[in-house]
Each structure stands twice: as structure tokens, then as C-alpha cells.
Design goal:
heterodimer, A: 572 residues, mainly alpha, Sodium/glucose cotransporter, 22 helices, B: 70 residues
């Protein structure tokens, strides 16, 4: 079966027009980049619908678009748990309870909030872990883009440049890196956010025809159902027993591991997404950001998961053949979207679909680079390397950090290319660092007694517990190594997913307990006056200034929560 | 932040919309080409959808500007 295709001139024109607009937006923003605040915080001046769409679009990178379609084909309907239980409740919590502290405290980043609320070492730990993590994430996006592009649009590039061989992979890697670099240096965070909004609409318009045609081909929803086992078409019905569902997890792991620890740890504390809300033009807009983002987020499964499920149904009828992973006998589910694009899209809309795919990869990179910039400039450079410089100086540093961030991302893309396992291992370590983070925020924001020492040691012990739990358990059928079990195996989980959820639960619990105990043993160093605006009980309730009741965050939150619940019931 | 994002979004989708609509009209009835999309002229439909969306973006952005000037 054909696994690569050639684009016609028209398809290239569509891609080219997108590139021109991406760079043009950066160019148009250049004259507004007069200070560090404009460059690194978008001047806190964007309307809620823009930050809201950027909030979910920053996540709609390679990992989500390619990964969710692959999960759809592997786990079926259960993949929606990453949306309705694994994102929406956390986004509501962020909007209603946490945004007032992030936005109101005037902190410029999540690590800076940690410094204001706790102490320097807690900020330092978070800032360094986050900076490394974002550079690697951006490198993985670049790697994924170059890898996919060289497989599906081979250009037969074989150049020699000063004795260095340049192939297709290198070509795609450098072209995407240069485009991202140019529009980020020109327009900073605003450029990243504006392009995320553009990308969001492109993905919707580019993927919608694909989903519609594929659905018609399989015979509609009923046709899809008829060609799949029943447990692929339900999200909760088979969650009572891990052996009965394709994901190999039970309801408690989904509810607590994914729906609480992982989801709240990601959506409420990850600066990549929180930064978008902090760029909003008012407190009300900042609080509405995650809620406005939640509305399209709930329906994204139609665009990113359903194609995967349809692809599986089509392979069951024999109408489609998915390619195998190179050199193995296992199906390469990561190619679901490109294979479907190839099968159904005629010249013209094919270019549109490819553009949507590239847009998603590039804004995945740019999102990480913009978050890296801000954390590096404010929380590492200004805090530890060179404080008390004029604002212009930090603007320059921010711009140079963009260049360095992109260069390091290119390096990590090559690391990913040559050592696949190293990348898995790094992602694992970051998961260990992230899982306990929400415990520190939860206690810090809602219990004024929580001390800096306690938060710091809570984070460390949470990370260590995650590593221990992972090192002592193994998913069924795996061998000890990157998958776990490196300290010996005392428990076997039915699947990798189940192991991940439980690692998060252990890490969170350890962080929570240790922070609680150490708080009670240490003296509170910050006065109530210093904690004003940072802790729930010491902050005056804010009055939302929206004109109409239906524009208020509280009302939006109820609507969003209700729709997610109804969707979960329909597709239970 | 200086630039109204609705303008570049509107412009881009209008341009892409015009291109795909024209392409769709020219290739309309090309059975061989649209066999893979089950006989549906996806270029025409996507092009028109993008024109409508792009036009909406441009209209709402320029209307906002006009009101401010008045």
C-alpha cells in the first residue's frame, strides 16, 4: 500500500499562503514590541476569545493531533476521558478558583507565583524543571513534524553543504524551525497566541471534511458501531473491570489518577497554558479564558479521536490498511490522520489538510518556546544571573532566549532521532516532577499556614515517590527498563495507562502528606499581609465586572460543566 | 495588541476560500478526481465554507473599527 504521496502545485500554494500569513502576523506585531512586558506577556492586552482559543490550541500540537487519533484507534471511545473528565473539570477549577491568584497577584509566571507564595528554592526547582521540559517538548514537536513530513511528502533532497549531508529530515526540521524562530522573535508571545488562534480555525476547517467523508464511507455512526466490538464504543460502561476494556484501566484510576491528579496538575499549574490566560486584558477575561477554551475542547474529540475510531472500523471491513511500524509487525497508529488524508482528499483540500497538520506542529513548538522565554528571562536570568537591569535589557534577553530556545530544540530533535529511549525516559522524569505540583498549589492557595520548606520538600518527595512507584511496578507483558520495574517488580498493572494513573496518584498523595506534616513542624515565615492576594482566605472576593449575567465566569462554568456531563452520559 | 487578529484570519481564509472555490468549479464533474472523496466536490464545499467564515471575520472586524471612529 502507498504510504507517501506527492502534492500538486495547488497544495503547495495553500501551504505557502499559510506560511506567508504566519510570518506576516509576526511582522505586523514587530513595531509593538517596545518592552519586555509586550514581548513576554503580550502586554496583558488580549480579549478573552483570543486567549481562550489559544489556551486549547497551544495544546493541539503533534502529541494531541497524532496521539489522540492513535489512541482512538487503540482504545476507542475511552479516549474521550482525556477531554471530558481529564480536562474540563480542571479548566473550570482554574477559571473559578485559581485564576484570581495568578492574575491578581501580578506574578508574571507560574514559578514567580511560587516565589511570592512560598520561597526562592521552590521557584528555582519549578523554573529549572519547566525550562528543560519545554525545550524538550518543543524539540519533540519538531522531530515529529520532520519525521512525518519526510515520510508522507518525500522531496528527494540530497544536498551537500560544506561537507555536511542534508537530507529531507534535516530540510523539514530547519524550515519549520526557521519559520517559528522568525515569527517568535518578531512578535513574541502575541505572535505565538495569534498564530495559535489561526491554527485552531485551520484545524477545524481542514479536518472537518475528512471526518465527514470518512464517516459517510463507513456508513455513518451506526456503520461504525457495526464494525467494532462493543467495548470500543463506550467511555464508562466497561470501566468496572480493567480486563473488559481496551485501555486496561478501572474507573477509580480514571477518576482520580487522570481526572484529578494528572488533569489538575497539568491544566492548573502548567505555565504553557496558564500563560495564555495571564495575557488576557482583564481579570474577568483571564477567568473566562479557560471556560471559553473549554467549549471547543469538549467537541475536539470529533476531529481528533473519531478519525482514529473510523480508521479502525475501516480496517475491520477491509476498506483500509494501516501501515506497519518500520521493521516491525505492529501497526503504526501514528499514521492514522495522514493515511486518511491521502485516501479521501483530492488535490486542493489535501493541501489544506496538510497545512492544518503542519500548523498544529509548528504552534506546538512556538507555544513551548514562548513559555520557555518568559520563565528563562524572568525566573532564571533576572532572578539568578543579572537582576536590576532596565526593561529594555530584558526585552533583548527575551529575544535572544527565543533564538537559543529554538537552537536547543533543534538539538533535542536530533537527540530524539538517534535515541528513542532517551526521549521516553526524559518524558517519564518530567511526569514525575509534574504529578506532585498540584498538591503544593492546592495547599498553598487554600491553607495560609502552608510554608515554603513544606512545599519544597513536598515536591521533592512527591517526585521521589513517583520514581519509586514506577520502579517497583510494571505494565502487563513489558520487560523491566523504561517501562518500570527497575528496582524489582512487586506489582503488575493490566496496562501502561493504569500504571501511569497510579504513579500520579502515589506522587500526589506523598506530596500532600509530606507538605502537611512539614508545615505543622515548621514556622510560618510569611506574614498575612505578604500573603494577601495569594491565598484564598486572605484575598477579598472579586466582583466580576461583566455587564450581563450570562457573561459572568460562574454562569459560563455551569454551562460548560453541564454540557460535559451530558456528553459523558450520551457516550457512556 | 495593535493588530486586530480578525483581519489576518479573515484575509487568509478569504484568499484560500477563493482559490479552492475556483478550483472546485473548474474541476466540478471530474468523476475520476472526486472518486476518492466518494463523488463529493470537497474543494467547492470547503472553499465556500472558508469564504463565509473569512467574510464573517472581516465584517466583524471592520464594523468594530467603524463604530469606534464614529
Amino acid at each position: 500500500m502507498q504510504t507517501s504521496f506527492s502534492l500538486a502545485t495547488l497544495d503547495w500554494i495553500v501551504i505557502l499562503i499559510y506560511f506567508i500569513f504566519v510570518l506576516g502576523i509576526g511582522w505586523a506585531l514587530k513595531k509593538h514590541m517596545k518592552d519586555a512586558t509586550a514581548f513576554l506577556e503580550a502586554g496583558r492586552s488580549l480579549p478573552a476569545w483570543v486567549t481562550g482559543l489559544a489556551f486549547i490550541s497551544a495544546n493541539l500540537g503533534a502529541l494531541e493531533v497524532i496521539g489522540m487519533a492513535a489512541s482512538g484507534a487503540k482504545y476507542g471511545m475511552m479516549t474521550v476521558h482525556f477531554y471530558w473528565i481529564g480536562a474540563i473539570p480542571a479548566m473550570i477549577f482554574l477559571a473559578i478558583f485559581m485564576m484570581p491568584f495568578y492574575y491578581g497577584s501580578k506574578a508574571r509566571s507560574v514559578p514567580e507565583y511560587l516565589k511570592l507564595r512560598f520561597d526562592e528554592k521552590t521557584r528555582g526547582f519549578n523554573a529549572f524543571a519547566f525550562a528543560i521540559m519545554t525545550v524538550f517538548a518543543s524539540g519533540i514537536s519538531m522531530y515529529a513534524l520532520a519525521l512525518l513530513a519526510q515520510v508522507i511528502i518525500p522531496l528527494d533532497i540530497d544536498w551537500n553543504f560544506l561537507g555536511i549531508h542534508i537530507g529531507e529530515f534535516d530540510f523539514y526540521l530547519f524550515v519549520s524551525a526557521i519559520i517559528v524562530l522568525v515569527y517568535m522573535v518578531l512578535g513574541g508571545l502575541t505572535s505565538a497566541i495569534y498564530n495559535e488562534v489561526l491554527q485552531f480555525f485551520l484545524i477545524v476547517i481542514g479536518f472537518a471534511p475528512l471526518v465527514i467523508i470518512a464517516l459517510i464511507d463507513i456508513g455513518g455512526w451506526e456503520g461504525m458501531k457495526a464494525n467494532l466490538p462493543e467495548n470500543m464504543m463506550h467511555s464508562w460502561k466497561f470501566a468496572g473491570n480493567p480486563d473488559a476494556n481496551p485501555m486496561g484501566v478501572e474507573w477509580f484510576g480514571i477518576l482520580v489518577g487522570l481526572g484529578f491528579v494528572l488533569s489538575f496538575g497539568y491544566w492548573c499549574t502548567n505555565f504553557l497554558v496558564v500563560q495564555r490566560a495571564m495575557a488576557a486584558d482583564s481579570m474577568s477575561a483571564a477567568r473566562k479564558t479557560p471556560l471559553i477554551g473549554a467549549i471547543p475542547k469538549m467537541f475536539l474529540p470529533i476531529l481528533v479521536i473519531v478519525p482514529g475510531i473510523i480508521a479502525l472500523a475501516l480496517t475491520n471491513t477491509g476498506a483500509l490498511e494501516l501501515p506497519l511500524k518500520e521493521g516491525t509487525m505492529t501497526t503504526d497508529f501514528d499514521k492514522v490522520i495522514p493515511v486518511l488524508l491521502m485516501k479521501y482528499m483530492p488535490v486542493g483540500v489535501l493541501g489544506l489538510g496538510m497545512t492544518a497538520l503542519m500548523a498544529s506542529f509548528m504552534s506546538g513548538m512556538a507555544g513551548n518556546v514562548s513559555a520557555f522565554n518568559t520563565v528563562f528571562t524572568y525566573d532564571i536570568y533576572q532572578s539568578y544571573i543579572n537582576p536590576r537591569q532596565p526593561d529594555k535589557h530584558y526585552l533583548k534577553v527575551g529575544q535572544w532566549t527565543t533564538v537559543v530556545g529554538v537552537l536547543v530544540s533543534i538539538l533535542t530533535a536530533y537527540v530524539a532521532q538517534s535515541f528513542n529511549n532517551v526521549m521516553d525516559f526524559l518524558q517519564l522524569i518530567f511526569a514525575f516532577v509534574n504529578a506532585p505540583l498540584f498538591a503544593a498549589f492546592l495547599l498553598g492557595m487554600f491553607w495560609k499556614r502552608t510554608t515554603g520548606h513544606a512545599a519544597f520538600w513536598g515536591l521533592i518527595s512527591g517526585t521521589v515517590s513517583a520514581a519509586f512507584h514506577h520502579g517497583l511496578t510494571l505494565p502487563y507483558g513489558s520487560i523491566a527498563g523504561v517501562k518500570g520495574g527497575y528496582f524489582g517488580v512487586i506489582h503488575t498493572y493490566p496496562s501502561e495507562m493504569a500504571q501511569n494513573f497510579w504513579t500520579a496518584i502515589y506522587a500526589f498523595t506523598a506530596a500532600l502528606v509530606i507538605t502537611l506534616v512539614i508545615t505543622l513542624l515548621t514556622k510560618k515565615l510569611k506574614t498575612d499581609e505578604e500573603l494577601k492576594g495569594l491565598v484564598y482566605s486572605l484575598t477579598p472576593r472579586i466582583q466580576d465586572d461583566s455587564k450581563y449575567w450570562y457573561q459572568k465566569p460562574g454562569f459560563l462554568a455551569i454551562i460548560v460543566g453541564a454540557v460535559a456531563l451530558v456528553l459523558s452520559i450520551i457516550f457512556w | 495588541m495593535g493588530l486586530d487578529i480578525k483581519i489576518p484570519i479573515g484575509l487568509m481564509f478569504c484568499i484560500l476560500g477563493v482559490i479552492l472555490t475556483i478550483h472546485g468549479i473548474i474541476t466540478n464533474g471530474n468523476v475520476e478526481m472526486y472518486e476518492q472523496s466518494l463523488g463529493h466536490n470537497l474543494n467547492l464545499w470547503s472553499g465556500l465554507a472558508m469564504l463565509v467564515f473569512g467574510g464573517f471575520m472581516l465584517l466583524t472586524s471592520s464594523l468594530v473599527k467603524k463604530k469606534k471612529k464614529e
